[in-house]
């Protein structure tokens, strides 16, 4: 049924141009679409986070350093960043399905090879390929929603998709911890290979092509470069993208450092780490859900500035606790979760403000936004490891990311440029 609706949606087939294929879908078809797209997007967080409990084991097993192991996370994020820039534009030219299926196949192959990686350099390269593969899933899933829906319908579907997406970061380390009870770290990558193969089948059978030939871009590389040049010449857009990227840097400072801090320094085992990490993800999601309520009373700009101030203050407190040891692990975790909640508030508002400025080039803007977020996150991931794997370096990276985001918001983004935000887009991104 979903495929038939898409095929009927060629140019001129609808009496009103604003009616898109998604508007004709039944509730059952929409639910199926959300589940399929949610599964595709979830492969990204699972690929990034499932192996986190195994980082100390990988360090020992491959006889390498903590910093080198953290660079494998950087490799995944770099692949994800570059992949979004390349695949986003490619899918506008050739359609959604070919890049998606090719990307998922590359992810499966890289995951299988990770199982047999003989050294840390090989693992790092393969993680880049994994990142490229999950970039295809992330970009295409978002593009499919834009192909099928607009306005309030887009907002509703995207909000439901967020519920599916929110489970992945919570479940990933817990799933990884459970796997490590029965297998070594290589088994995590075997599980990712199986998951990727399942998604290839699901995408091939259940996700039709949503971009008709008549709607595909024909401007080639020159048109793509013009779009990117327009975006980069917008100071407010660039500033907001940097704000989102720096908030992501704080998040990945936590993601890359937490396994070493909580397991090595504080003595948690792999299962206890999975629980603690999952609790932090709950704090992050709680921030995004609180944001929905706050938007009824405040603007995205007001929430973003206030959140960055609170996040910077919490980050500085985190440094103090890490240096002094006051309150022990309980105080450190509570403050970490507070910072994560502020990141959960900041991440939706920055993109909402940025994307509202370029709705005519939303796909390219989304690709650039995602690439910068992942790119800055990739750079931040190994920073803490350069100065050790304790709580203090991790806290400095987290606080530094939030403080830098606040500085860019205040000094770079013009206030006058943020007076209006597309309300449908703002709701959708929260």
Written overview of the protein:
- The protein has about 425 residues and is mainly α.
- About 80% of the residues lie in helices and about 0% in strands.
- It has helices at about 1-5, 25-50, 55-60, 65-95, 95-115, 120-150, 150-180, 185-205, 220-230, 235-265, 270-295, 300-325, 330-355, 360-380, 385, 390-410, 425-430.
- The two termini are about 30 Å apart.
Task: List key phrases describing it.
430 residues, mainly alpha, 17 helices
Walk me through the topology.
Layout: H1 2-7, H2 27-49, H3 55-61, H4 66-94, H5 97-115, H6 120-148, H7 151-180, H8 186-206, H9 220-232, H10 235-265, H11 270-294, H12 300-324, H13 328-355, H14 362-380, H15 383-386, H16 391-411, H17 423-428
Number of strands: 0
> Which residues form runs of ≥5 with pLDDT under 50?
9-17, 420-430
The largest pleated sheet is described as: none
How many helices? The count is: 17
Please provide the ordered H/E string of secondary-structure elements: HHHHHHHHHHHHHHHHH
Gross morphology is globular
Question: Portion of residues in helices?
Answer: over 70%
Strand content: under 5%
Average of per-residue pLDDT values:
82
* Structural class designation: mainly alpha
Question: Concise description?
Answer:
The chain has 430 residues and is an all-alpha fold. The chain is built from 17 helices and no strands. Helix 5 (97-115) packs antiparallel against helix 6 (120-148), helix 5 packs antiparallel against helix 8 (186-206) and helix 10 packs antiparallel against helix 13 (328-355).
């Amino acid at each position: 049924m979903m495929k038939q609706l898409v095929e009927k949606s060629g140019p001129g087939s609808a009496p009103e141009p604003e009616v898109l294929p998604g508007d004709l879908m039944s509730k059952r078809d929409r639910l199926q679409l959300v589940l399929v797209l949610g599964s595709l997007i979830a492969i990204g967080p699972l690929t990034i986070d499932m192996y986190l409990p195994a980082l100390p084991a990988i360090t020992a097993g491959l006889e390498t350093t903590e910093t080198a192991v953290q660079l494998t996370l950087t490799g995944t994020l770099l692949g994800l960043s570059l992949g979004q820039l390349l695949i986003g534009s490619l899918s506008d030219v050739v359609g959604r399905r070919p890049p998606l299926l090719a990307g998922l196949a590359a992810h499966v192959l890289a995951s299988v090879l990770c199982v047999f990686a003989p050294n840390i350099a090989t693992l790092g390269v393969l993680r880049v390929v994994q990142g490229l593969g999950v970039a295809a899933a992330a970009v295409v899933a978002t593009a499919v929603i834009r192909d099928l829906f607009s306005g309030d319908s887009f907002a509703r579907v995207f909000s439901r998709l967020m519920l599916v997406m929110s489970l992945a970061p919570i479940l990933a380390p817990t799933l990884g911890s459970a796997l490590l009870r029965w297998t070594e770290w290589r088994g995590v990558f075997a599980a990712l290979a199986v998951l990727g193969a399942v998604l290839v089948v699901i995408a091939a059978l259940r996700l039709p092509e949503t971009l008709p030939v008549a709607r595909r871009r024909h401007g080639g590389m020159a048109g793509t470069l013009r779009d990117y040049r327009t975006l980069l010449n917008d100071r407010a857009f660039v500033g907001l993208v940097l704000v989102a990227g720096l908030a992501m840097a704080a998040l990945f400072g936590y993601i890359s450092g937490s396994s070493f801090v909580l397991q090595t320094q504080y003595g948690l085992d792999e299962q206890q780490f999975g629980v603690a990490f999952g609790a932090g993800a709950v704090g992050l999601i709680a921030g995004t859900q609180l944001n929905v309520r706050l938007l009824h009373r405040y603007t995205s700009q007001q929430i973003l500035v206030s959140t960055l101030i609170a996040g910077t203050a919490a980050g500085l407190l985190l440094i103090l606790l890490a240096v002094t040891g006051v309150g022990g692990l309980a105080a450190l975790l509570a403050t970490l979760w507070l910072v994560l909640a502020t990141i959960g508030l900041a991440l939706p508002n920055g993109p909402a403000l940025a994307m509202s400025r370029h709705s005519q080039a939303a796909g390219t803007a989304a690709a650039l936004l995602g690439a910068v977020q992942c790119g800055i996150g990739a750079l931040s991931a190994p920073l803490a490891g350069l100065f050790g794997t304790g709580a203090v370096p991790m806290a400095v990276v987290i606080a530094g990311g939030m403080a830098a985001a606040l500085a860019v918001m205040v000094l770079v983004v013009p206030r006058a440029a943020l007076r209006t935000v597309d309300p449908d887009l703002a709701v959708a991104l929260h």
